[in-house]
Amino acid sequence: MIGPLRGRCRAINFLVNHRPLVSVIVPACNAEKVLGDALASAQQQTYRELEIIVVDDGSTDGTGEVARRFAAADGRIRLLQQANGGSAAARNAALGNAHGEWIAFLDADDVWLPTKIESQLRLWQSDPAANFLFANYWNWDGQRDISVQYSRRRKFPKGNVLRELIYWGLFRTSTVMVRRETLDRAGLFDPELRNVHDWDLWLRIGETGFWARGVWEPQVRYRIWEKNASANRVNIARFVVRTLEKALARPQPAARLRHYRRAWRIARAQLELMQAQSLVSSAPDAVPAAVLRAWRCYPRRLKWLMRYLALVWPDALGGRWTSAAVRKKLRRWRMGQRVEMSQET
Fold first, then answer.
1. Rounded to two decimals, what is the model's pTM?
2. Strands (E), the chain
3. Which of these, 38, 48, 246, 317, has the minimum number of CB atoms within 10 Å of its CB?
4. d(Cα 27, Cα 201) in Å, to the nearest integer?
5. How far apart are CA 14 and CA 77, in angstroms?
6. Helix (H, G, I), strand (E, B) or coil at 137
C-alpha cells in the first residue's frame, strides 16, 4: 500500500504546485505488451511539465498493473479505470480529468521520440495562431522504421486544411496536440464511431475554425502489428460513410457542403466495392449488383473503378501474375488518391 499512496501523493503535489501546460491522454485496452513502451516515451520527453492520464478501458490482462507500476514511480502519471467502452469513451473520460491548456494524444501501442512535445510547443511559439499541432511520423514494426508518412514537403498539411481533411484523414492520433479551448468548442469524441472517431473530431474542429501546424521531422513511431493490421476494412468503410453523414446533417456553408457530398459519394462507392470484393468467393452472383451500386454512387472515376475490378476478378484478367502487378501499382496509387480528389474542381 505504501508505494501506491506515495504515488498518489506525488500526483496531488504535482497538480497543486504545477498546472501542467500539456495533458497526455493514453487509452489502453489489453495493451500489457506495449503500454510500457508508450509510457516510457512520454516520461522521456525533453519537455517535462506534463500530466499523463492512462485510461484502462476494461482490460482483461495486466494493462492496469503496468500503469500502476509507472504511476507509483512518476507522480505525473494517473490511472483511471472503466468498463470497456472503446477508445473514444476512454479518451472522453481522460478529458474530463485533464488540466492542461494543450491536450496530447498517445495510443498505447505507439511511441513518441523524446523531442515530440518540445518541438511542437516551439512551433506554436513561432505561430501563436496554431491551435492544432501534429508531427510527421514513422511507420514502425516494433523493431525498425519501415517508412516515413510524409516524404514531400509540398504535401505536408499547413493552415486551414479542412477541405483536404474531408477526403482523407491527414493526422495520426498519436501525433496530434490540440488547444483545450478548441476541443471545448468542437465537443467530445463520438463513442458510436468505433474506428474513425478521431477523424470525426478533427472535422468538427475544422468546422469551428482551426490552424494546423506540423513538425516536419518525424516525432512519432506508429506501430504496425496484429492489433491494427487486422482491422476489418469493410467496417472501417462503414464508419467513414457514417461520419460523413453526420457532417452532412450539420449546418454547413454551401461550398463545404459540396465537398462533403462528394466525399460521401466516394466513400459509398468504396464501401460497395469492398463489399463486392468480399463477395467474390462467398456469393459471386451478388458481385455485379454491388459494383453497379458503386458505379452509381460515383460514376466519374472509370479508371478508379477499373483498378478495383482488376482486384475483384484477377483470373479473368490474366490470373495471379496480373493480380500481383495490379496490387503493386495500386499500393503506390492508393496513398495519393484522396488528396488528388480533394484538389479537383
1. 0.83
2. 22-28, 50-57, 77-82, 102-105, 111-112, 132-140, 145-148, 177-179, 212-223
3. 48
4. 16
5. 10
6. strand
- Which residues are within 8 A (CB) of 298 and not within 5 positions of it... i.e. 6 or more apart? 265, 266, 268, 269, 304
- Tell me if residue 297 falls in helix, strand or coil: helix
Angstrom distance (rounded) from CA 58 to CA 301: 44
DSSP string, 183-241: HHHH----TT-TTTHHHHHHHHHHHH---EEEEEEEEEEEE-SHHHHT--HHHHHHHHH
**What is the spatial distance between Cα 19 and Cα 260, in angstroms, rounded to a whole number?**
40
What angle in degrees, to the nearest 10, is found between the helix axes of 302-312 and 320-342? 150
- pLDDT tens by residue, 275-292: 877 776 677 777 777 777
What is the tens place of the pLDDT at every residue in 202-218? 999 999 999 999 999 99
The one-letter amino acid code at 230 reads S
d(CA 256, CA 262): 10
Helices 254-282 and 320-342, packing angle to 10 deg: 170
For β-strands 212-223 and 111-112, DSSP reports them as: antiparallel
Which triple of cell numbers denotes residue 210?
A: 482551426
**Three-class SS string for 93-112?**
HHHCCCCCCEEEECCCCCEE
Q: Which three cell numbers stand for residue 90?
A: 476512454
